[in-house]
Amino acid sequence: MTTYRPPCTVTPEILSQVAEIAEHVGRLSAADGMALRLRRVNRIRTIHGSLAIEGNTLSEAQITAILEGRRVMAPPREIQEVRNAARVYECLPQWNPHQQDDLLTAHKMLMEGLLDSAGMYRSDSVGVMGQAGVVHIAPPAERVPELMADLLHWLQQTDLHPLVAGSIFHYEFEFIHPFADGNGRMGRLWHTLILCRWQPLFADLPTESMIHARQQDYYHALNQSTSQSDAAPFVSFMLEVILSTLEGLTAPQVTPQFTPQVETLLAVLKGEMSRSELMQALGLTDRKSFRQRYLLPALQAGLIEMTLPDKPRSRLQRYRLKEVVRGQ
User: Fold this and answer.
1) Radius of gyration for the alpha carbons in the chain, expressed in angstroms and rounded
2) How far apart are CA 217 and CA 18, in angstroms?
3) To the nearest 5 percent, what fractions of the chain are helix, strand and coil?
4) Which tens digit of pLDDT belongs to each residue from 74-102?
5) What's the predicted TM-score (pTM) here?
6) Which of 126, 136, 187, 325 lies deepest, with the highest CB count within 10 Å?
């Protein structure tokens, strides 16, 4: 029996994040979850976010049209990616996160028509590229089956909270990079599956779109954990994303509603404003609270946008209302 245990320091911050997320989940469950219409909207946003991270250029409107069987003028590969992702998320409740056969089946569905080796572990060495070149060399291909078997066994046996275990699995999966392509999509999908086994409502949360809004932070957290040989930075980042997603979600009526914090942010946002200008206008001093309760939910909802979307951490970054919001 394997004694494999992924390296992760469970910090007080992580424990605090888990407790806060559990509290939000309890409230949402007590409110009888989400209406069917919002579930569909969130599923589309999830598909859009996950594929956009990997370079798919289709909008949420185009994805909606594809899923409704309408014709869309777009690259065939991107249309196929959408159809595959939709099928995979529909099958999510059928799979066991501990089963290798289910993992391979999901990859085969996700990459059907896109990758010759869909549903099979890679047979070649791979490196993960960043802006400055190769940022990670994955383990040799011949070790992948053993590493994945160890990881799945650990996931089945661990007594860590699913919020922590899911994030650790996500990080370790990306570190191993078991497939020739589709690793990012599969890592996020399996993370969702792990959370769904804890609380089914996670199948309907648009966490992927929040990750997309913070794509560079996502990669930075992965790289930080790799450089420290400790999954803790990535775990904390993912818990922050999940918490922000939950905080930006309210019980829906006929159309999705937004939190008072987001509505207040929209009211003070005039033209283009920096983070410090927005905080001053709102009378806030806590940067973390502002980011989690105001800024990220508004970005996730598509109500505001960055003036420098390719440089989210730039000191010159400013925010403005999106065109569709300005025109309402």
Assistant:
1) 20
2) 20
3) 60, 5, 35
4) 999 999 999 999 999 999 999 999 999 99
5) 0.73
6) 187
